[in-house]
Each structure stands twice: as C-alpha cells, then as structure tokens.
Write a structure and sequence with these properties.
About 45% of the residues lie in helices and about 20% in strands. It is built from 6 helices and 5 strands; from the N terminus they run βββαβααβααα. The chain has a 5-stranded mixed β-sheet. α1 packs parallel to α3. The longest helix has 18 residues.
C-alpha cells in the first residue's frame, strides 16, 4: 500500500506544504518516481487581520487537505522551529514574539490532525537539514530533483519539499 503524507513548513504569512505518495515495491525508489505536489497555504493580510484569524484561516486550509478522500493523507510531518543561538534573525524573531506565535500555529495544526485522527510528528530543522541556509537547501533540492524552481516559490514551499524528501529518505 502506498504511504501518503503531508510535510509542512509552518509560517504565519504562508505555510509551505508538500504532499507525497510513496510508490511501493519500486526497486528504483527515487523521489521523482513519487506522486507529489507542493505549494503554499496562503493566509490573510497581517495588517488587516490578527493572529487568531490568520491561524484559524491556515487551520481551515489544512483541514480541507485532511478531509480530502482522494488525497487520503496518512500522516502529517511538521518542521519544528527552534531558536538558533548564532542567528540574529532567529533572536529578533523571538524577541518580537514571532516564535511564540509560530508555536501556537503548530499546536493548532497538531490539534486539527488529532481531530481527524491523523498521526502528526515534529521534525526539528537541525534533524533534517542541519545548519544549511535557505539558498543551500534550494540548491540541493534543485540538484537532487534535476530542476530549477520558479523564482516565486517561497522559502516555506522549498523547505516543505526538503522536509518531505528527508522523510522519504532522499534528502
């Protein structure tokens, strides 16, 4: 039976996703032989809507994926953020409260998965890509998939694809 999972890179302005169907019994097991699609759950404009409305909106989009009988998602994997001691950006994000808001979004995503009885697990950034930069991650994925991503592809979308490849053992 094919394994179907959804990898998420959560963000409050957009959450990257990658939906994967792993093909069973394929001796030339390669990521490109999987059925996959990736993109972004878009959110409401932060200047017009508060945190709770944006979280509710993103959770609604995740819920739509989880109830889709064609997708038949069996597991959700979410990138778990952390505070990087050497990153000024990470510290600035934490001091503004963005890291706490992101933790609320992830908790809400886990609740939605639980309500749909779909297992959900967190994988730390360090576990799947170590200290690779966004540019290095993008370059590795383009090399592994032998493609160039559209310049409009968000970093959340790229990271969700990388997380999915990690889960599939192909990163």
């Amino acid at each position: 039976m094919a394994k179907r999972f959804l990898a998420l890179d959560p963000g409050l302005t957009g959450t990257g996703y990658c939906y994967v169907v792993e093909a069973p019994g394929n001796p030339a097991f390669g990521f490109l032989r999987h059925d996959y699609k990736h993109g972004n759950f878009r959110t409401l404009k932060p200047k017009k809507f508060g945190l709770q409305e944006r979280i509710d909106f993103l959770c609604g989009q995740l819920g739509d994926f989880l109830v889709d009988k064609v997708l038949a998602i069996q597991e959700v994997v979410i990138e778990q953020p952390s505070l990087w001691s050497a990153s000024a950006l990470s510290h600035a994000s934490a001091s503004k409260g963005d890291l706490f808001a992101l933790a609320m979004l992830i908790g809400a995503f886990q609740l939605i998965c639980s309500q749909h009885q779909i297992p959900c697990r967190l994988i730390s950034v360090q576990a799947w890509k170590g200290t690779m930069t966004k540019d290095a991650t993008r370059a590795r994925l383009e090399r592994n998939l032998q493609t160039k991503f559209d310049s409009r592809a968000s970093t959340h979308e790229i990271d969700a694809l990388g997380l999915a490849m990690f889960v599939a053992g192909k990163f």
